[in-house]
Amino acid sequence: MKKLLLSSVILGCISPVYAQEALGFAPNSKSPVVNPDSTVTLSIRAPKAEKVSVFGFSAYQPIELTKGAEGVWSVTTPKLKPDLYTYSFDIDGVRTIDPANAYTARDISALFSEVIVPGGNADLYAVQDVPHGTVSKVWYNSPILGMDRRMTIYTPAGYEDNKDKRYPVFYLLHGMGGDEEAWNELGRASIILDNLIASGKAEPMIVVMPNGNGNMAAAPGHTGDGMYTPNGEYSKAEPGKFEKSMADIVKYVDSHYRTIPDKAHRAIAGLSMGGGHTWRTSMMMPDDFDYIGLFSAAVRWNGSGVDNSDEGLIKPLERQFKQAPKLYWIAIGKEDFLYDLNKDYRLMLDGMKIPYEYHESEGGHTWTNWRDYLVLFTPRLFK
Fold this sequence. Notes:
CATH architecture of the largest domain: 3-Layer(aba) Sandwich
Shape: globular
Strand content: 25-35%
CATH class of the largest domain: Alpha Beta
Strand order of the largest sheet: 11-12-14-13-15-16-17-18
CATH superfamily of the largest domain: Alpha/Beta hydrolase fold, catalytic domain
Number of strands: 18
């Protein structure tokens, strides 16, 4: 009985500790440190570890850390290009975020630490002392998909104050494995828009970031599906179905926000799978979007649920370009695994004498490129 009473007292003392904030926690190393020469010094205390490395700074190749005093492992990277980098440590085969770095982002089921090396476009990825827009998580009903669904919507600074002003709308679509959080978290979309608008480089606009997976209502943890482990296959879009549901999204946005509801004031763009969604949606809704951006787009993908043959595409493309959009923008990296697919598609457009603009960058299928494409594409809109 005394043992039971003692156990109860101990549990009573311990339990509140678990419920409190982590006020007493302090990182046992300073990491990351961005140095004046654009190198980054990383460190982590792991006294019992035999090998520690870091992924994210060297083309997916690990950089090994060196063990120092008190079991603190550290390394300084080579000089880095300006960019936002996501990274993780590997400690004896176990991946982990940097415990000294409070800045993280989720990519599908993996959590990564973040650091910005300043300069160039990377300065647009950092929060600056400018007027900030509002980011909302909005639920809407999609009759076409038969469910309530969630999307992220950015309204520019001043939207709430000026009740008479109406705005153009930019629909921004994520890739496979992503969801309605991807563009704003990994892509830094709202921060980029804040900075571009404040500098006068982009028009004030509403940006709509829907969940492009036709069989999902929302990002993991925000549905009744429980706390499952997300993966690309679980969230794979149903072929062709999401594109049809874009009409539901446009209708909701136009009825709930102060939009300018016409083709000249709507843009759509997407990366990878979302680029494929953009490609097909713009053909299916030729009177709705005057600005189209294909970022590393999965065009002519066999799993798309549509006829991707040249013969099958001729009529939809002819219909779309009968009243040609103001901007049809294609961008891809030289090392992207979808490069040849995009090259073949451009050859078809050339053969049909369909006008488009093309941007080719270094690198592959990466957020480094997609953030850069967003920076290049957005100032072209609604001019």
